[in-house]
Each structure stands twice: as structure tokens, then as C-alpha cells.
Amino acid sequence: MGEEGEKAERGKLPVNEQGNVTTATRDENLKDIFHSIRMEKTPAVINYGASWCRVCNQILPSFHELSKKFPKLSFVYADIDECPETTQNIRYTPTFHFYRDGERVDEMFGGGEERLHDRLWLHS
């Protein structure tokens, strides 16, 4: 497998029992995920949060549950403290970025399970 294939594989993590969510654990990992989103043109949503953020912690279980309801979307969680270089432009947590055909097409700030569900439905 070439370098490009290896990078794409690193961006993919196994599905866990909490849903179909990939977790970016460091900047390099999130860069690989961005590369996969651009190359595969898979519809995706990235949830930027932080462990110290109360609203982030409240919406995260719903994010995992919603990943089961929208299997056509790739779900990614990125903690801004674990990926400081790639998330330096994130000003609010949680922030959700929605991707289609490899490009960011929408964003949502803050929590709210119903708001998130509706936005995911729109992009699925």
C-alpha cells in the first residue's frame, strides 16, 4: 500500500459500540480525516468540542446516537485541546461543520439535539 493509501487508512477508525463516530486524537489524525473527506467526497459532519465544555458533553451522546440514524454520513469528533493546530480557527464549542463532495457547505454553533438532527437530515 502506498503512502496515500496508508494516510487514508489512518484516518479511518473502527466503528465502536457507541455509534459510527471516528475520533481525531491528534492534529495528524485530523489532517488525515480531512484528506479522506476531500478525496472520497463522502458526506461528513465534524463535531469540534472540548472535554471542559458542558454543552459539548451534553450533546456528545446524542451525536453518537444520531450517527446510527444517518449511516450515509461520516461522523467525526475532534477535541480542540487534542488537535490545537488544526482547530485553531474554531471559536465556539461545540461547532459542527458539514461536508459534501469534499467541501465544507454548512456549520452550526451550539447544542440542541433537535437542531442537530434537522441539520443532519438536511445533509444526509
Automatic annotation (TrEMBL):
Q: Which residues lie in Basic and acidic residues bias regions?
A: 1-12
**Which PROSITE patterns does the record cross-reference, listed alphabetically?**
THIOREDOXIN_2 (PS51352)
Q: Which organism is it from?
A: Anisodus acutangulus
Query: What start and end residues bound the annotated signal peptide?
Result: none
Thioredoxin domain location, by residue?
2-124
Alphabetized PANTHER family for the sequence: THIOREDOXIN-LIKE 3-3 (PTHR47571)
The record's region (Disordered) falls at 1-24
Protein's UniProt name:
Thioredoxin domain-containing protein
